[in-house]
Amino acid sequence: MKRLQLLLLGLMGFCFAQAQKATFRIEGSFIGNNSYDNRPIRLVEHDAIYFDQITVLDSTVVRNGHFVFEGTADVPKIALVEILDTKPTDWITSTNQDVILESGTIVMKYDSLGVVITGTPLNNRYNELLLTENRSIRQKTNEILVKRQQRTDAENGVLSSKENDEFNKQIASLYVNYKKKQESFAKENVQNPVGVYFFFKYPVTMYEKDYLEYMKARIDPAIWKKNEEKISQREQAEQRVLQSKKEMEVGHRYREIIGRDPAGNAVKLSELIKPGHTTLLIFWASWCAPCIQEIPFLKGLYKDYHTKGLDLISISLDSSEKAWLGALDKQAMEWPQMSELKGWKGSAPKDYGINSIPFVLLLDQNGCIVIRNLYDKLLVNAIEELLK
Questions:
Q1: What whole-number distance in Å separates Cα of residue 76 and Cα of residue 360?
Q2: Is 323 found in the same domain as 188?
Q3: Residue 49 located in a structural domain
Q4: The whole model's pTM is what?
Q5: Which residues, including other chains, have CB under 8 Å from residue 57's CB and lie 6 or more apart?
Q6: pLDDT tens digits along 269-285
Q7: What's the structural domain count of the chain?
Q8: φ, ψ for residue 233 (rounded to 5)?
Q9: On the CB side of 334, how many CA atoms lie within 13 Å of its CA?
Q10: Does the residue 8 lie in any domain?
């Protein structure tokens, strides 16, 4: 009997705890657009400070232009609706969209200008203050771009730098009011995770002193400490890249990279570099359009100079194995491929002082850097000189 009573008390406690959590339902739709059908879509929560740390709350598939998420949240907080299988024809505002999780039915309606979110108090306010402004910005931006294209056509395809800068200033000015409204929304919600999330969307250095002090006095000190740690880590990483640039200039020997090959085998860069051979290291990624554009040039180098002693090795900065292997299958590069599959968080970009791709390093027969990120004729000349 006593055991039964304890069990009943436990169940009552569980039910009470669940009752304290807000139950939400998100009903989403893509107005007049069925191109999203059958695509995976998920609801994720991002850490307000370390944005790349995520928790998947729910996932589904778009059916007949609609999707539904359900769940609970103990306090109002931000989540992102993310479409995983994106396409070039997608509405630009539809890929990732913030939504506030709170009790009730939340209605999200997407169109070419963005999204309208209604149905619960905070989402209604969010829509009124920020999403409506964002839609206005999108509309006005489109109008400015049309005018710029008309002027460009009138000038035979070449717009003066002065006039082009003026159009860019017009677009930039549209966001001034949006930033103020976002600051206001964060201030209204500073006591809950919604306000904290929107506050840290901008670097704290971008805020006016009075506003910054007001928010700092009301945000949990532990969150401030976490943000300071992130800033410190970023500064240290930047210093490492700068130091690596100095240490990996012309004349220095290459550094080891440990990753995996397309077959899934562990591989070291030193195992791919052949003593006595000239080697071109190529840093790239499947998502990098300029990198893909360089591949025909690299194939030409391989065809013309490989039999004369030039080796090519590609090091991908992908983090998605599927994307990397898909690009390799499509591009059909004949030379060795490797990747840490850690994106910019891998050791390679830090150790080589790389902050943008595509990036190439030409190594001489001793593994020392001869050329750092040069292309076209200058690179060809350097290769021919080494192969003499």
A1: 47
A2: no
A3: yes
A4: 0.65
A5: 42, 43, 44, 45, 69, 71, 79, 101
A6: 999 999 889 999 999 99
A7: 2
A8: -65, -40
A9: 11
A10: no
Kindly state whether residues 256 and 153 are assigned to the same domain: no
**Cα–Cα distance between 203 and 209 in angstroms, integer?**
13
Do 30 and 159 lie in a common domain?
A: yes
Q: Strand 310-316 to strand 278-284: parallel, antiparallel, or no bridges (unpaired)?
A: parallel
**pLDDT tens digits for range 181-231:** 999 999 999 999 999 999 998 888 889 999 999 999 999 999 999 988 888
Q: Which residues pair with 145 in a beta bridge?
A: none
Partners of 107 in beta bridges: 27, 118
Tokens of 60: 């589904």
Per DSSP, the residues of 298-355 read HHHHHHHHGGGTEEEEEEE--S-HHHHHHHHHHH---S-EEE-S-GGGSHHHHHTT--
| Count of alpha carbons within 13 angstroms of residue 54, beta-carbon side | 12
The answer to whether 387 and 305 have CB atoms below 8 angstroms apart is yes
- Residue 378: C-alpha distances to residues 163, 245, 283, 311, 375 (Å): 34, 21, 18, 18, 6
Concatenating the DSSP letter of every residue in 113-145 gives TEEEEESSHHHHHHIIIIIHHHHHHHHHHHHHH
Residues 253 and 214 in one domain: no
Q: Which long-range contacts (CB under 8 A, 24 or more apart) does 294-301 make?
A: 294/358, 294/375, 295/331, 295/333, 297/375, 297/376, 298/333, 299/333, 299/334, 301/379, 301/380, 301/383
Q: Which domain holds residue 282?
A: 248-386
